[in-house]
Amino acid sequence: MLVREVTENEYLEAIKLSEYAFQYKVPEADKPARKESLKDHKILGIWDDNRLAAKLHMIPLKVFMKEAEWEMGGIAGVASYPEYRRNGYIKTLMIESLKHMQNNGQIVSLLHPFDISFYRKYGWEILSEQKKVTIEKIDLKFLEMQPGFIRRYTKETHNEEIEKIYDQFCTQYTGMLKRDSNWWKQKIYGEDSQLAVYYNSNQEAKGYILYEVKERKMTVEELVALDHEGRIGLWNFICQHDSMVETVTITLPVHESFPYFMTQPKVKTELYPYFMARVVNAEECLRRFPFTPDSESLFLHLEDFHAPWNNGSYLLGQGELKVYKEKAGAQCAHPPKKGIQLNINSLSTILFGYKRPMELYDMGYLKGSKTEIELFEKMVPALKSSFLDFF
């Protein structure tokens, strides 16, 4: 089995494999641009003689961890031809990707799963959920009119002010993607997308919606509000479309208070897991994580089957981190009597804020004394995870 990086001259083979596996076709006229975009990726491939049998893309990105930014490796385009499936090729690529990300300083990784259980085997865990709300025309009821105003933009008139709204919004959450202007224009705006910004009476931008209106349906892909005035102002703008649409569908972070404040909040609401996340470098993540300062010391005994550099014990507390790594080939005859035992999945979901230590303890995913779990619960600040993008 030959594993190596796909070269620029082989990008067309990677595109062909994606077309087959994901059942779409890239028009010939678009292939030069598609090949150009792959220059930002590192593509690992497994080759059978001269044929690309399986591949995996790694995209160097960053995510917000509230005000901080962490280096992230985005996993995408994981695919193989049917005749090469169920023989360990994808497993090999997933493990190789962890080594590459570790060497490249990408301390966490995100991906969009086709199957959550499949990626859980390799240490990725649910990062966030999305909420999809469907509102019928009859429920498009205006709320108290706000003193601000709306301005609409398109990809051609996109500006830095919009990006600042998003960046400020991201500091409320963990896991949100750091976007640059090129990402906005290439990945966020659809062919028919419009973006409406709400400004307050001081002409300060306080939120936006990214949306399309087609065939008497309004689809809001993003609703980002920095305060409740902005939220109401954007809702009233949605209601202004009552003569144009029969339904409005809004995709939201799960923690967004919508539709609580509506006149009729009893609307169809769907909730589903979205992206997954994984700690790649546990030591660096634990050093950067904003644990509650001056807490008592606590041992975490971490197990990571596919990234063995993370295996070991980590002593947290007093604003410090001490690391006791496992020696290669060594194995403890008896499990540690002091501290919390957990795997990389549990650590990942705790650090991103999707699940709390006590929740995982109650489900049997954390092992330790109740006193230690309670201490860990106090050490981890309350966080909200979210992710709006796709790759």
From TrEMBL:
Transmembrane segments: none annotated. GO terms for molecular function: aminoglycoside N-acetyltransferase activity. This is GNAT family acetyltransferase. PROSITE patterns: GNAT (PS51186). It comes from Neobacillus vireti LMG 21834. Residues 1-141 form the N-acetyltransferase domain. It comes from the Bacteria. One of its GO terms (biological process) is aminoglycoside antibiotic catabolic process. InterPro entries: Acetyltransf_17 (IPR041380), Acetyltransferase_Eis (IPR051554), Acyl_CoA_acyltransferase (IPR016181), Eis_dom (IPR025559), GNAT_dom (IPR000182), SCP2_sterol-bd_dom_sf (IPR036527). Pfam families: Acetyltransf_17, Acetyltransf_9, SCP2_2.
